[in-house]
Design brief:
The complex is a heterodimer of chains A (about 575) and B (about 180).
Chain A lengths: L1 E2 L3 H9 L4 E5 L3 H17 L3 E5 L3 H11 L5 E5 L7 H5 L6 E5 L2 E2 L3 H4 L5 E4 L11 H4 L3 H10 L7 H6 L4 H32 L4 E2 L3 H11 L5 H16 L5 H18 L14 E8 L9 H7 L1 H7 L4 H14 L3 H4 L8 H17 L6 E9 L3 E4 H12 L6 H11 L5 H27 L4 E3 L2 E5 L13 H18 L8 E8 L4 E7 L11 H12 L3 E2 L7 E5 L3 H14 L1
Parallel strand pairs in A: 1-7, 2-3, 2-4, 4-5, 5-7, 13-14
Antiparallel strand pairs in A: 6-8, 9-10, 10-11, 12-13, 14-15, 15-17, 16-17
Chain B lengths: L2 H8 L3 E6 L6 E3 L2 E3 L8 E4 H9 L3 E4 L6 H13 L11 H11 L7 H28 L12 H33 L1
Antiparallel strand pairs in B: 1-4, 1-5, 2-3
Main location (chain A): nucleus
Keywords (chain A): Cell cycle, Cell division, DNA replication, Nucleus
Organism (chain A): Geodia barretti
């Protein structure tokens, strides 16, 4: 059943009275959503358990371990696309609520009447086929079952054997009509289902849905708003939605920001409270916490525009800095240690010079938060830091998840700052890798798509065995590849990296092509079909539709099959 | 007494809140509070107000004296007098610190208010220390201090009582020594 309008009564009040199990996928949007929900639970003294699940098998284990104590289960960004009732087999009294941004949702979950509820934002419309197109009424199902492989022996026939053949003939015609209709209906149903599940895309972020819930309960404040903004920024920067949708959502957030951050002259608020304001953000990662030179070299957008791995590109970059009027010595200093005049004028200089050097899409609208005099973070900084904390290579997923969750509360903002340092290392590692790939010509363009794979034993390989970072590397590599080969712009990019050397498994991630405006990807379908054909040992466990795991030996066969599949369609 | 204990005693003071939930009257050991209706001001004890504020269930209306104008006046009054002036509340320090720490958004110009309260506190502490010094140097046995709050008393108590004890001990030894010398 779909819950939209009465979110407060149907969703929140039902779960806040019992012990709740919250299952969360480890990415930034779900983490923010989980934190919002936790704040609401704490205020109401609701007991809850949070478990991190990165795949379907983990979801099942978590459920079976905890289900005897709980009455409600909330799934955040996981399980929307899986058949929950079949998979988990919950008892009668257990209610499952799904807050998932992945579409398309599994139709069994949407049309389930009692146990599974999908929580959507108000005003959202689900594009799903009608109930009648997919599901049979019971009567027809029975007759279908009878007809399936057997001869036509109906109850009516047995009864009517007495009355004779005439009635049978009439029935024969009627049943022929009915069979034909059912056959057509079934074919139509298959077509509808195929079209429905063909493309995977993302809709409203889970953190935005839960923020609106908090707003309806009048429990929203700047901290929760900031979490919602971080979730929204992830959707843009991790390319889950396109720019237009991001701008629309941002305009929806503007009234909240204005309402909670009114600064009139008489009632200037204390310096220790969080203030959020609207900012035009540059596509330079972490430049306020790094040196300008490093930030320009390691950010995806600028590095690929200037092609900093080539000598000529590097010179171009230096020319750009000279054109802006920034001495190189200053650029190699930490941003906060630069001279005041350079720091203040940096924004206007970069806007002026960017157009000259072809950096058109440098700025985008975003928000930044400030607490006290020392700590000022932009949404992108927060996002990068949290991603780095979640995918900390030195810790297991669960530990890293809990640490990242901890770091999201503003009393622990030092952890975010530590996360920024890790993010810098990660970003530098990604850029070095991209440079290696381009220099050694390891990127292969095989007709319908472009692919590359990370060799075993490369330094910093530990960063790339997690899905979020792998996708980041794939995007960076795709941009870099496109900057040298314009025609590759239309092709999707697939990257593979080893994840577990003992078991011999590798992770494969797909990134859609750049010209796609709507960010719909067909990776899940294509991957499953190719894997079936080659009987590769692949597990489509992960909730991220563009990522899956398989054995390294099967990789070559898999890519051949995928090429064949894509050239056909 | 610990400062935390003094704060605990101060939390009994009544303060006005604006709840955003609705609830019937609460019958507790320390009294009845409520009923609570959204956007209707209610008087509750400070401990309840702070708890509700932390759970985002209300907004606190700062007491009449917790604003810049009143406190600036009070501060100049305190600076002018050589004795202690009457404070707006016998627990002004505890109330202001609790309200400013937990509900800073509800207090206009919270930073200035915080500075002013601290200034008043410092002035009174300086007077207290001067008074103690005077009492000991002039060897007086009796001092009367009006308008001192419990928190301020609590700050000076450990030092003053211990110091006087020491002085008394030394004095006794000195007199017994001189008397034994005389013999």
């Amino acid at each position: 059943m779909v819950v939209i309008d009465r979110v407060k009564e149907d969703f929140y009040q039902r779960i806040s009275s019992d012990h709740v199990l919250v299952l969360v996928y480890p990415d930034v949007d779900s983490l923010c959503a989980c934190k919002i929900l936790q704040t609401l639970f704490k205020a109401d003294n609701t007991q809850y358990t949070v478990v991190c699940v990165s795949g379907i098998s983990q979801l099942k284990t978590a459920f079976t371990t905890h289900h005897d104590k709980v009455r409600s289960v909330v799934l955040i960004n996981c399980g929307g696309g899986a058949k929950l009732i079949e998979l988990l087999q919950p008892e009668e009294h257990i209610c499952i609520f799904v807050v998932d941004s992945v579409r398309p949702l599994e139709l069994d979950n949407v049309y389930n009447k009692g146990q599974v509820h999908i929580v959507l934002r108000e005003g959202e419309v689900l594009e799903i086929p009608d109930f009648d197109d997919i599901y049979d009424s019971d009567q027809q199902a029975e007759e279908d079952g009878e007809e399936e492989g057997e001869e036509f022996f109906s109850d009516e026939e047995v009864e009517d054997s007495v009355t004779g053949g005439k009635r049978r003939r009439r029935e024969g015609e009627a049943s022929y009509e009915a069979r034909r209709k059912r056959h057509l209906w079934r074919r139509k149903r298959e077509e509808i289902l195929y079209k429905y599940s063909e493309f995977n895309y993302h809709s409203t972020a889970a953190s935005l849905v839960l923020y609106e819930l908090a707003w309806r309960l009048t429990r929203d404040n700047n901290e929760l708003l900031w979490l919602a903004i971080t979730g929204l920024t992830e959707q843009l920067l991790h390319e889950k939605t396109d720019r237009e949708m991001y701008v629309t959502e941002m305009h929806r957030m503007q009234p909240h920001v204005l309402r909670l951050n009114r600064s009139e002259e008489e009632t200037v608020s204390a310096i220790n409270t969080m203030k959020i304001n609207f900012v035009e953000e540059l596509r330079l990662d972490l430049y306020r916490h790094w040196t300008i030179y490093d930030s320009l070299c390691n950010s995806c957008y600028t590095a690929c525009k200037f092609k900093v791995w080539s000598l000529k590109g590097h010179k171009n970059l230096l020319e750009f800095l000279a054109d802006m009027g920034l001495p190189l010595v200053q650029c190699k200093q930490r941003f906060s240690a630069m001279d005041v005049q350079f720091r203040e004028n940096f924004r206007s200089w970069i806007d002026r010079s960017a157009a000259k050097f072809g950096l058109d899409n440098m700025a985008y609208g975003s928000f930044s938060a400030q607490i006290g005099y020392k700590i000022k973070l932009s949404a992108a900084d927060m996002l990068l830091s949290t991603t780095a904390l979640i995918e900390n290579p030195e810790k297991s997923t669960e530990e890293a998840f809990l640490q990242a969750l901890d770091a999201l509360s503003w009393s622990n903002v030092t952890k975010i700052l530590a996360g920024i340092e890790t993010a810098k290392l990660q970003q530098a590692a990604i850029k070095t890798h991209v440079r290696n790939f381009i220099d050694t010509h390891q990127v292969v363009c095989t007709g319908p798509f472009v692919y590359a794979y990370v060799e075993e034993g490369t330094p910093n390989m530990k960063y790339f065995s997690r899905p979020l970072t792998l996708c980041k590397l794939a995007r960076f590599l795709r941009e870099a590849w496109i900057s040298s080969n314009k025609r590759a712009r239309d092709y999707p990019f697939i990257l593979s990296a080893p994840v577990d050397l003992e078991k011999g498994t590798c992770l494969v991630a797909g990134v859609p092509c750049q010209t796609e405006e709507t960010r719909r990807s067909e990776f899940r379908k294509a991957f499953t079909q190719a894997a079936d054909r080659t009987q590769a040992n692949a597990s489509f466990d992960c909730f991220d539709n563009c990522v899956f795991e398989m054995q390294m030996e099967d990789r070559g066969k898999f890519f051949d099959a995928l090429t064949a599949l894509c050239t056909v369609c | 007494m610990e400062p935390a204990e003094v704060e605990f005693l101060a939390e009994k003071e009544q303060i006005t809140i604006v709840p955003n939930f609705s609830e019937n009257k609460l019958y507790l050991i320390s009294g009845e509070f409520g009923p609570f209706n959204p956007s209707m001001q209610t008087r509750v004890p400070l401990w309840l107000a702070i708890n509700l504020r932390q759970r985002q269930k209300c907004h606190i209306v700062p007491p009449d004296w917790l604003n810049v104008d009143y406190l600036t006046e009070k501060k100049s009054e305190e600076a002018a007098e050589s004795f202690f002036t009457a404070m707006p509340s016998p627990n002004y320090m505890e109330v202001s610190s609790l309200v400013l720490n937990n509900a800073a958004e509800d207090v206009p110009k919270a930073d200035e208010v915080r500075t002013l309260v601290k200034d008043i506190w410092d002035l009174r502490q300086a007077k207290l220390k001067k008074g103690v010094d005077q009492m000991i140097s002039q060897q007086e046995t009796f001092a009367k201090l009006d308008n001192l709050t419990l928190m301020e008393m609590n700050c000076i108590r450990p030092f003053l009582t211990a110091a006087l004890d020491h002085l008394h001990l030394l004095h006794n030894h000195a007199t017994s020594y001189t008397s034994s010398q005389a013999d």
